[in-house]
Amino acid sequence: LLNSNGNMTMRLQKFEAIFFVNVPIDEAFKIISDHNKITEMFGVFSTRIMDGSGVSGGSSARSIFSWTISFNKKVTGIQEISYVVSKGSPLKDHLGKIRFSQKNGITEIICSMRFRSKIPFTGKLLAIILKKSLEKRTSRILCELEQQKMDKIYA
Description:
Helix content: 25-40%
Strand order of the largest sheet: 1-7-6-5-4-3-2
Distance between the termini: 59 Å
Mean pLDDT: 78
Strand content: 35-45%
Largest sheet: 7 strands, antiparallel
Number of strands: 7
Shape: globular
């Protein structure tokens, strides 16, 4: 795609992953809002570079890295978890959101992401890889959370 200046721009990629977990919304939020769990959801590592309000609160920032990429992530909101990649990623115009709602004791978690790839013709592939990784790893984390709830009930 060409922009108004005649320069090539990458297509905006979007995806959404929806999860349901049988735990109270505050427990789900507490686990998912933890920076360490977010990095576990994507299979990467992180180090804190700036504290926000609370351990994982608004304006906190982490340096995220894996064997293939390294970038900085900053939390921009905490009612719903919003974050942007602020530096060093193969993604640009990135925005991630994790929203929580609850009905009849079941918590719904909606993870959405939008971005453009800096590398031509790789955006769709990156979206597929990120979504599959997010679905697999987040499902595992949420199953562990439900199991902990069941262990408390039957202990």
